[in-house]
Specification:
By secondary structure, the protein is an alpha/beta fold. The chain has 4 domains: about 5-20 and about 175-320, MoaB/Mog-like domain (Molybdenum Cofactor Biosythetic Enzyme, Chain A), CATH 3.40.980.10; about 20-40 and about 145-170, Molybdopterin biosynthesis moea protein, domain 2 (Alpha-Beta Complex), CATH 3.90.105.10; about 50-135, Molybdopterin biosynthesis moeA protein, domain 3, CATH 2.170.190; about 330-400, MoeA, C-terminal, domain IV (Beta-clip, Beta Barrel), CATH 2.40.340. The chain has helices at about 5-15, 60, 155-160, 200-210, 225-240, 255-265, 300-320; strands at about 20-25, 35-40, 50, 55, 70-75, 90-95, 105-110, 115, 120, 130-135, 145, 165-170, 175-180, 185, 195-200, 215-220, 240-245, 265-270, 275, 280-290, 290-300, 330-335, 340, 345-355, 360-365, 380-385, 390, 395-400. A hairpin with a 2-residue loop joins strand 24 and strand 25 (about 360-365). Helix 5 packs across helix 6 (about 255-265). Bound molecules: adenosine monophosphate (AMP) and magnesium ion. Adenosine monophosphate binds near residues 185, 199, 200, 255 and 300.
């Protein structure tokens, strides 16, 4: 049995990127950038107005509120370009986002101006630079805007669009096949026969994978039968780089995933981790036509599936996509209740998190058993209770991993 720390290290050591591709910006959400990106354009691309108003030369107006009348020489909506300089005591009406004419150095908002018969009268002071957005004030031409290894989220996509990128170079996504094992499984929505349970892991793994960046090739339900399991794993190994199984990895008479993985040539990286839940977690590695295939043998219990996915599979998928920040986000929190456990295995404890005056409080939830799902709907964090601990008092600090599901 390996420790949590060793197991994570062994998994991550195997993670290698799968090449790169150039894809459209639309559709790049959640992908990981494969190069440093420098903007080819300044943002904004030209000097423009931050308000609907009148572009003026502040010198014309200095200290003469209510006395100066400016001649309105043009009107400029956003999208048009009025390239002429404005002369002394002239103004151009500009809408938000419209270019500011060259000689103008301020824009007076419409609310501060009276317009009559082709002239405007100002009701306020004007400072040079006021309400003008300078070219490049957000992003300069040539500026590094996104670093290699960045996980593209909404603001990154917005920034790339603003800089004019229609495409982006990203790492390839791993293709994943899910095999849920168990003779007892019944599809939700069907009638449950005696001895059967509804299959929740298919739904869970599909949802987890949707937010992981991986490409889900197929989800298949497998009987606890060695021959068909070997075939299913073999087929999956030809369809992609990652196989996730659920169930059949423990020491029961019908737990056949280890044997099946071995029969198709899988090299066992580890089996069994000193953790609770997900003790029987297994990880295999094999080569198929010169390409790597990784097998995560997750336990059958849904709680163990979700937690081991967050702790191992999601970081692994991020890393093979070139993400430089792949571990779960971590906070320190104070236990509001004592925790008792047996020594020997690290416990992933489902906690309710509350922020009080800037500090996190973690309250252990009821229903922590690995087959239980209900408490997982109430938690955003998993506290790590160290293997060697058997008691943590109220008020002690714990590390909590924030979950992304
Ligand atoms: P196993 O490791 O195959 O013995 O499974 C451990 C426990 O998880 C058993 O109680 C199984 O019935 C349950 N289990 C296995 N697969 C699923 C699944 N897809 N959905 C819900 N529970 C499952
Ligand atoms: Mg089973």
């Amino acid at each position: 049995m390996v420790s949590f720390k060793q197991a994570r290290k062994l998994v991550m050591e195997k993670a290698v990127t799968l090449g790169q591709e150039i894809i459209k910006l639309d559709g790049a959400f959640g992908r990981i950038v494969a190069e440093d990106i420098h903007s080819k354009n300044p943002v904004p691309p030209f000097r423009n107005s931050a308000v609907d108003g009148y572009a003026v030369r502040s010198l014309d107006i200095k200290g003469q509120i209510g006395q100066v009348r400016l001649k309105l020489v043009a009107k400029q909506p956003a999208g048009d370009y009025y390239g002429k300089k404005i002369g002394r005591n002239q103004t151009v009406k500009v809408m938000t986002g419209a270019p500011v004419p060259p000689a103008a150095d301020a824009v007076v908002p419409v609310e501060e101006v009276e317009e009559k018969d082709g002239y405007v009268e100002l009701k306020c002071q004007v400072k040079s630079g006021e309400n003008i957005r300078e070219a490049g004030e957000d992003v300069k031409r040539g500026q590094l805007i996104i670093k290699k290894g960045t996980w593209l989220r909404t603001p990154h996509l917005g920034l790339l669009a603003a800089c004019g990128f229609g495409k982006v170079r990203v790492y390839r996504r791993p293709r994943v096949t899910v095999l849920v094992t168990g003779n007892e499984l019944c599809r939700p929505g069907r009638t449950l026969r005696p001895g059967k349970i509804f299959d929740s892991n298919s739904t869970i793994l599909k949802a987890l994978l949707e937010t992981s960046g991986a490409e889900l090739v197929a989800i298949k339900k497998e009987k606890d039968n060695l021959k068909s399991l070997v075939e299913a794993i073999r087929t999956a190994s030809n369809l992609g780089e990652i196989i996730i199984t659920s169930g059949g990895i423990s020491v029961g008479d019908f737990d056949l995933v280890n044997e099946a993985a071995k029969q198709i040539g899988g090299e066992r990286v580890f089996w069994k981790v000193a953790q609770k839940p997900a003790k029987p977690l297994a990880f295999y590695y094999l080569k198929r036509g010169g390409k790597p295939v990784w097998i995560f043998g997750l336990p059958g219990n849904p709680g163990a599936v979700m937690i081991s996915f967050e702790e191992y599979v999601r970081p692994f998928i991020k890393k093979i996509q070139g993400c430089s920040d792949f571990w779960p986000e971590e906070i320190e929190a104070t236990l509001t209740k004592a925790v008792k456990k047996k020594k020997g295995r690290l416990n992933f404890l489902r906690v309710r998190l509350e922020n009080q005056a800037g500090s996190w409080l973690a309250t252990p939830l009821d229903k922590q058993e690995s087959g239980m799902i209900s408490s997982l709907t109430l938690t955003r964090g998993i506290a790590l209770i160290p293997a060697e601990a058997d008691y943590l008092a109220e008020g002690e600090k714990v590390i909590v991993h924030l979950i992304e599901w």
